[in-house]
Amino acid sequence: MSEAKSTELNDLVGEGYVPSEAERKKAVMMYFLLGIIIGLSAVKLGKYEKYHLKQALGWWAIFFVLLVASIFLAFIPIIRFLPIVLFLAFLVILLVFVRQAWSGVYATKQEKMFLPFFYGIGGWIVDIFDVLEDDGKKENGEGEYK
């Protein structure tokens, strides 16, 4: 996890941050595909919502990759059941993430995160496509950030 991401999450705890009910509802919504679309088009997201948006993006990215792989695995007689097991495992992971979002749970250290690679992949996607505005940067109208 990069230092900027670590600082972003540590800011939440350092402030004694407790997400409001509206933030928790938005965070739960992020785990559904429509919620990601709405979250990415939102003008302003809080740190808590960004955390869950990145985690949800990572979950969906890995889910779609495994979905495509499962189509091919379904035709191999010996491991035909594997796609079903993968789907059920990902459903359980999704339910855990939704429960954490609803409960106001977030982790500040990668060791304490539940499956941290989802957050890492989501953060990587956000960084590649530059879809979330950084709090400290403002665009000056010429495509440059100050």
Question: Which value, in Å, is the CA radius of gyration?
Answer: 17 Å
List the uncertain runs: 136-146
Structural class: mainly alpha
The number of distinct β-strands equals 0
Tally of individual domains: 1
Query: What proportion of the residues form beta strands (DSSP E)?
Result: under 5%
What would the average pLDDT be, to the nearest integer? 78
Our count of helices gives: 6
Query: What composes the largest sheet?
Result: none
What is the chains' assembly state? single chain
The backbone outline, from C-alpha atoms, is elongated
Question: How do the helices and strands line up, and which of them pair or pack?
Answer:
Blueprint: H1 3-14, H2 21-30, H3 33-41, H4 47-73, H5 82-103, H6 116-129
Question: How would you portray this structure in words?
Answer:
This protein is an all-alpha fold and 146 residues long. The chain has one domain (3-129). 64% of the residues lie in helices and 0% in strands. The chain is built from six helices and no strands. Helix 3 (33-41) packs across helix 4 (47-73). The longest helix has 27 residues, at 47-73.
